[in-house]
Structure formats: C-alpha cells, structure tokens
C-alpha cells in the first residue's frame, strides 16, 4: 500500500481511512516481529511507570532533566530526524487527520437528481502535474526538446496556450481545481468533483505519488478520500523522495482493465524540487560540464525532469488509446515554477512573483468516438484560469451538477472571459505587463 520504509505521519491517514483489505495489505508490509515486540515493551513500560510515585526532591535535577529533554526535541527538529520518530509521527498524523475533518467542509447533499448526464462516455483520466511551467515545455515553444513525445503527438491533442493557476502553492491551487471553490467563492461549503462522479454512477480512483498528510496536502487528501479507491505511493517530504512517477503505471493499467465506467485521478510528483530526483539516469539528456554555473545546472535538472514528465503523460495517453472505451485524458499542473527565468532565483514565492509561477500546461486527449459536448469549441488561445477546471471537467465529460455553469468551461462556445485575479486580488494580465517580468 505504501513504498517508503520509515513510519511517517502520512501513514496515520491511511490507517484511519483505509478499508479492511487495504489495512491488511499495510500491516503485512510494515508490521513485523521486531515492531510488535517493541510496541509490547513500550506498553509494559508505560504501566510500570504509572505505578511508581514520582516525587520532586531536587529542583536542579528536574530543571536539568527538562532542559535535556527539550534539547533532544530541538536537535531532532533541527536535524530533521524527528521525521523518522514513530511516536512523533503517530501523534502528528492523528492530530492532522482530525484537524482536517474539521477544517474542510464539503457539500453532503449531492443527489443524482441534481446531476445531468448528457453523454455516454466511459473513462475519464485527470492528471495533476506538479510544479511544471509551460514555459519549459517544447510543446509550448520552449527552445529545448523537453517534450518530444507530446510534441510529435500534438495534432491529437487540444492544447491550450493561455492557462494560469490561481496560486503559486499546491495547498491553495489544487482545491480550486477539483471543487466548486474559486477565487471569488463566499460559500461555507464546497462541492467535491469526485463526489459528483460517485453519485452519477462512476467508480472513482485516486493514485498519488505525493504523501497524504503534510502542510501542503491535507485538504487535497480530504478531497481524494471521497474516491471509491485511493492509494498513496509516497510518504516522505517532497524534496527528499526519489520515487518516480512510473510507479503508478501497474495500478493504472489494472484500473483500466476493470469493467464499468470510471474516473481516475492521478497526482504526480512531476517536476517538484529537488529536480534531479524526478527522473532516472536514462533521462539525463541535458548535462552540465565541469565549468557549469549553479544556474545552468539547475536549469538542466529541471529540463530533464520535464523530459521525463513528457514520457509519463504520453504513456498514460497511449495506454488509453489502445483501449476501445470512449475515453478522455486531461493534463494540467497545479502551478508553474520559476527556474531562473529572467531572474536570479528558482522556485516560487508569494513575495517575489513571476509570470512563470502561474503559467501551466493544460491539454486534452480524447478517443475517436468520445462524445464531446454539443457546444464544444476549441480555442487554443482562450484566456482561462484553472479555478474553473471543476466546471470544465463536468462539461467535457457530460456530467453536470446543478451548480456548474457551462459559461465557465474552457470547452464551451458560451465561455465568458473574466478578469484573472490571482492570489490577493492581483490582476494577472495587467500586473506583469505593467511593471513586473
């Protein structure tokens, strides 16, 4: 059920949310004789200590002990070793899980009667990329050959050139992609796209190469937990993981082999920092020589990660293409990334904004017999922001909930343009034009 070996706080999400079959898989993989003996020793020690009367006779010793204990905690935290501490992760994971239940409020009154199904499509795959800016993709005109597979396949894709994210951080961006939440929402509750497909009679799946519990992922995992079946392959801090996105392939194929109509959500680690950990050695195409600067080296790492991401997304499409179902695949990234693009730094920041942090790839592949909406219109340069992906997915697949408005869908001939306000009410289309980047 999981891949990394250390017990992290992410595992608590799985232990609490998992069904009986998944839980048995987890325990078979991660519980062994040594762990059982260790836990038994800790339980016995706890009850032995409880029976002892603790008397404070020497205040200096107590103070010294308290400082020593705090010193250990500080050392674990500063060195990062606390991430490998089972007690800490059990408490943090459990606390994070229940805080998540309180903080995210979803619409619980979705009924099939409020869903209009206008097409007989069978399979939808939604691929969420990570930290991938369109500016480093050959498919979008980048000078390097970073997407040779998708570029050669471009005539079979609906590629949208002017799509941006609402935010530069995953935690803020992804919920606005997969729910009714957008940059102007004032409602107390939000509608989960996965729940709509559940009510409409589709089996929903979530495969993620990112961890379920962390500062950036909690709300997203709550969205994912509505799926009929979900699986997380990664439980380490993003920058430390070395698990490649191809780990998703076997389960992806198994899901497609199952009968019935389905919607599959795939969350990639994509091109997330550390970039050089996002691809195997065989994708080390852009190589730095001994005299390369840090800037040149980082750009090469990132472009290699984009090259590998090209292979991942293309492979997902080809797997669908070989099957008879009426199917579609939508790929977009949660946000972009700044990789020394006319600046002297890489990454993302809400205090130093750059266009490339918002500019994301957004494209669709459909099978030859896929039933497109009657009002479908392909405008590759349409000005769009990803917080209306919720409406666009429903419209494309022909599953429209009562709160979905086709005028918000990038695929509709009734699409209505709006001012693209990112983050704290910043007008994206004038902010950078006037004085930034």
TrEMBL record:
Localization (cell): Cell membrane
GO molecular function, one term: transferase activity
Membrane-spanning intervals of the chain: 31-50, 62-82
Domain Sulfatase N-terminal, chain residue ranges per copy: 124-372
Pfam families xref list: Sulfatase
Record keywords, A-Z: Cell membrane, Membrane, Transferase, Transmembrane, Transmembrane helix
Protein name: Phosphoethanolamine transferase
Phylogenetic lineage: Bacteria, Pseudomonadati, Bacteroidota, Flavobacteriia, Flavobacteriales
């Amino acid at each position: 059920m999981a891949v990394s070996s250390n017990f992290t706080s992410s595992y608590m999400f799985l232990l609490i949310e998992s069904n009986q079959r998944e839980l048995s898989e987890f325990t078979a993989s991660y519980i062994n004789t040594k762990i059982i003996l260790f836990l038994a020793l800790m339980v016995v020690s706890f009850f032995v200590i409880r029976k002892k009367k603790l008397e404070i006779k020497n205040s200096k010793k107590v103070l010294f002990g308290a400082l020593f204990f705090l010193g250990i905690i500080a050392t674990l935290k500063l060195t990062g070793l606390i991430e490998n501490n089972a007690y800490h992760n059990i408490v943090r994971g459990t606390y994070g899980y229940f805080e998540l239940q309180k903080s995210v409020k979803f619409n619980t009154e979705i009924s099939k009667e409020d869903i209009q199904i206008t097409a007989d499509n069978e399979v939808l795959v939604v691929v969420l990329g990570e930290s991938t800016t369109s500016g480093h993709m050959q498919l979008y005109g980048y000078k390097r050959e970073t997407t040779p597979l998708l570029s050669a396949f471009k005539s079979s894709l609906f590629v949208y050139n002017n799509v941006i994210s609402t935010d530069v951080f995953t935690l803020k961006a992804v919920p606005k992609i997969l729910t009714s939440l957008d940059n102007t929402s004032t409602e107390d509750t939000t509608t989960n796209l996965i729940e709509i497909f559940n009510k409409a009679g589709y089996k929903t799946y979530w495969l993620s190469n990112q961890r379920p519990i962390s500062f950036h992922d909690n709300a997203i995992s709550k969205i994912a937990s509505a799926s009929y079946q979900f699986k997380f392959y990664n439980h380490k801090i993003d920058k430390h993981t070395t698990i490649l996105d191809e780990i998703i392939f076997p389960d992806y194929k198994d899901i497609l082999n199952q009968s019935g109509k389905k919607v599959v959500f795939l969350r990639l680690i994509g091109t997330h920092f550390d970039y050089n950990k996002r691809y195997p050695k065989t994708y080390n195409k852009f190589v730095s020589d001994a005299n390369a600067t840090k800037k040149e080296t980082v750009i090469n790492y990132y472009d290699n990660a984009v090259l590998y991401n090209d292979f991942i997304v293309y492979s997902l499409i080809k797997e669908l293409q070989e099957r008879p179902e009426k199917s579609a695949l939508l790929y977009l990234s949660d946000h972009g990334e700044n990789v020394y693009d006319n600046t002297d730094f890489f990454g993302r920041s809400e205090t130093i904004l750059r266009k490339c942090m918002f500019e994301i790839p957004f494209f669709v592949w459909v099978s030859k017999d896929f039933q497109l909406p009657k009002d479908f219109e392909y405008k590759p340069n349409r000005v769009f922001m990803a917080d209306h992906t919720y409406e666009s997915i429903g419209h494309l697949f022909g599953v429209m909930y009562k709160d979905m408005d086709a005028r918000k869908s990038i695929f509709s001939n009734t699409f209505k343009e709006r001012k693209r306000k990112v983050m704290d009410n910043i007008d994206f289309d004038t902010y950078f034009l006037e004085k930034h980047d």
